[in-house]
Amino acid sequence: MKKVVERMLSVEQKPCLRTVPHVVALTGGIGSGKSTVRKMFEDLEVPCIDADLVAREIHQNPKHPATVEIIEAFPEVASPDGKLSRGSLHTLFAVDCIANVKLKAILKPYVLNHVQHWTSSMTAPYVIWESALIVDGGIDADYVVCVDASNDIRVDRVRARNPSWTHDQILRIFAMQASRKSYLTGADQIICNECSRRDLQLQVAKLHNKFINIWK
Ligand SMILES: CC(C)(COP(=O)(O)OP(=O)(O)OC[C@H]1O[C@@H](n2cnc3c(N)ncnc32)[C@H](O)[C@@H]1O)[C@@H](O)C(=O)NCCC(=O)NCCS
Ligand SMILES: Nc1ncnc2c1ncn2[C@@H]1O[C@H](COP(=O)(O)OP(=O)(O)OP(=O)(O)O)[C@@H](O)[C@H]1O
């Protein structure tokens, strides 16, 4: 009986073990393979969030204060129902650097707020935040993973994924994003995606084991 009471007391006195998960930022330029890598981490049951998808949910909601502000600033890219028109990446933001900076400044606080709330509701040792825009700064991650491939491979993959995009449109998006060098120098770890999906998966599994070992 004494032992049972002692054990109950020791359990009650233990501090709450619930801690906020570590954050791995997953970044890279357009077509580098971020979403492909994110899905591989999801297959390993790592909770993942796509910041660009969060941004999309915001600017496709005409009542969201960020959407109202964006449409006020850029009425030319409003759809008839008050959302941000999806083609606006090519017609405005990939060709007008100032407009792009303003768009990101409006969206970023709302996206980060959502992503941080989501993170604090997770119980895994670590979570993954995916975004092409992480190297823009202001994102507090424990570890930055950059998915990399040569510009030629990325252009080919984006063209295959988006057949209606022209070569010029793709190069404009490249030019709006951080340089390949900035992505690489800002990373703690690089995943080289000039390989087969199978070899990519092996790199992901190795990295996952490393994270689990340090943060278990
Ligand atoms: C410009 C927008 C409206 C175009 O939307 P659309 O659905 O047509 O494109 P999608 O989101 O699928 O983007 C496709 C790819 O283009 C690249 N990209 C998108 N937006 C940008 C941008 N503003 N600057 C540079 N590259 C971009 C990314 O590699 C992205 O994965 C949208 O991408 C957007 O809201 N971008 C800003 C996102 C943002 O500020 N996120 C904050 C993260 S902290
Ligand atoms: N190792 C690979 N072998 C063959 N195709 C690949 C490989 N990795 C990615 N792809 C393909 O390349 C395209 C771009 O990959 P993905 O969408 O993952 O890139 P991304 O970095 O998320 O791009 P974006 O910034 O536009 O969201 C996709 O169609 C994907 O299926």
From TrEMBL:
PROSITE patterns: DPCK. It catalyses: 3'-dephospho-CoA + ATP = ADP + CoA + H(+). Keywords: ATP-binding, Coenzyme A biosynthesis, Cytoplasm, Kinase, Nucleotide-binding, Transferase. The keyword Transferase applies. InterPro entries: Depp_CoAkinase, P-loop_NTPase. Catalyzes the phosphorylation of the 3'-hydroxyl group of dephosphocoenzyme A to form coenzyme A. GO terms for cellular component: cytoplasm. Its main location: cytoplasm. Belongs to the CoaE family. This is Dephospho-CoA kinase. Transmembrane segments: none annotated. Pathway: Cofactor biosynthesis; coenzyme A biosynthesis; CoA from (R)-pantothenate: step 5/5. ATP binds at residues 31-36. One of its GO terms (molecular function) is dephospho-CoA kinase activity. Its EC number is 2.7.1.24. It is found in: Cytoplasm. GO terms for biological process: coenzyme A biosynthetic process. It comes from Undibacterium jejuense.
